[in-house]
Each structure stands twice: as structure tokens, then as C-alpha cells.
Amino acid sequence: MKLSVFTACVLFSEAFAHMQLLEPPPLGGSNNPFLTDPPDPYLQYPYNCCGRVDTGFCHGHLNLLGTPQGQPVATWAAGSVQGFSLTGIGNHYGGSCQVGFSADNGITFQVATSFEGNCPHRHSTDSQDFEFTVPADIPLGNVVFAWIWYNREQEFNMNCAVITITEGADDTPTPSTPFNQRPFMLLADVGNGCLTPKTTTEVMYPNPGPDVVMGDGEYALELPYPPSMCGY
User: Fold this and answer.
1) DSSP 35-100
2) Is residue 6 in some structural domain?
3) Residue 128 domain-assigned (yes or no)
4) How sure is the predictor about 181, in pLDDT bands with cuts at 50, 70 and 90?
5) Which domain holds residue 157?
6) Confidence (pTM)
7) How many domains are there within the chain?
């Protein structure tokens, strides 16, 4: 049976397409109000998918920092509750996510919140909204917000957005873990020797940080492996 070019492209997209950050608008995203280059069509795809080689954080868009296309897309107060949302046509029935921040222009990323299981929401096709708390002592000024997703197929995706952090409320509690002592976000499934579990479980983060949101329990949680390559 022969497929038309259009049909083949649709099937290819459904097989490999995933999810991407919608809000805040990501670097390279079609909804980023400051983007003047063509939008990146691979933001919802896992790293190194579909003939493209991805190197570096944020799908390679950190080169936009400090340029007109890398301006902040939102302003968040330190210690405030904020949200992020996802979009796409393939949630792969869940997975585990982390969100975090870089205060050094994308050299390192430290965890804000770990979502262990059911991220994205496996039973939702349209509502992919999540809440988290901005670390109360995060440095003020422009930072890079990052969302990382591991599905159950040993695939990694990472989108980023530039955010301005302002001073928090006077009654914001002192964090139990200072920002500069929070763990780095997990990097796995990118050829670095660290692998996430495949098919039957969702990721349990070895260094989740102080803020953890548990999933719905439909899948068991399992640590990435081997420990020596995964930072624990």
C-alpha cells in the first residue's frame, strides 16, 4: 500500500511528536513575542530526533540570551506561586518532569520542583497546567526558566524561557534549602551514560530538591541508572 506524502508526514508526526512548553513562551517558540527568526519546529520533539542533532541546553537556543529575541517573557516575584503549561499532540501517557532555573546564563540549572509521574497529565488532552513555587531566594533580575521531560521511552526534551525575577513579599518564608544549594536538574538519555527506566515505570529523581509533586500512582517510580553516571 502506498501512502501520499501528506499522509506519511501526518503519521510521522503522530509517531514522534511530543509536548513542548507553551507558557511561559519558550526561546525559539512560535508564540514568543520577541522571536523574529523562523520558529523552531522541533521544540516538541525529543533531543536528537528525526535527523536533527541537538547539543546544549534549551534545544540550542541559549545563543538568544542578551539579544532582542531573548528578552524576558514574564515577570515573577521570588517566592511566588507560578504556573507553566504544555502543548502538543503526543503526551506519551505521562512521564516525569522537572522545572528549574539558571541564574548564570544557562551554565547550570537548579531544581525548583520535581513532578514524579503523570507529567504531562496522562488523562488530559487539552488541560496541561501545572503550578510550582519560585525559590524565595533566587537571584533577582533575568534568569532562564527550564522545563525538562522524561517519558517512558528513554527520551529527553528541554524547553526554556527568559523570566525577570523581582523582590518577593516581606512575609515570604525563608527557604529550607538555599537556591545555591538546590540540586542540579537531572540530565539523562542524552548520551552521557545516564538512562531513565523504559516502558513500565516513570522516573523517580535521585536528587529531587525540596519541592516534589507526586503523580497519580498509575505507574511505579524508578531511579535512573547507573548511579555513578546519574549523580547519586
Assistant:
1) --SPP-TTTTSPTT-TTPPP-SSGGGGGGGTTSGGG---EEEETT-EEEEEEEES--TT--EEEEE
2) no
3) yes
4) very high
5) 19-230
6) 0.91
7) 1
Copy the grid coordinates of residue 87.
Answer: 502543548
> Does position 5 have pLDDT exceeding 70, yes or no?
no
User: Whose grid coordinates read 520542583?
Assistant: 113
**What grid cell was written down for 53?**
542533532
Contact 145, 161 (CB under 8 A): yes
Does the residue 177 lie in any domain? yes
Which CATH number belongs to the domain containing residue 153 in this structure?
Answer: 2.70.50.70
Average pLDDT in the 70-94 region? 93
What is the band of 11 on the pLDDT scale with cuts at 50, 70, 90?
very low
Q: Is residue 31 part of a domain?
A: yes
Beta carbons within 8 Å of 55's beta carbon, 6+ residues apart: none
CA distance 116 to 95: 8
Q: Name the grid cell of 130.
A: 501545572
Give the pLDDT confidence of 193-211 residue by residue, as tens digits: 999 999 899 999 999 999 9
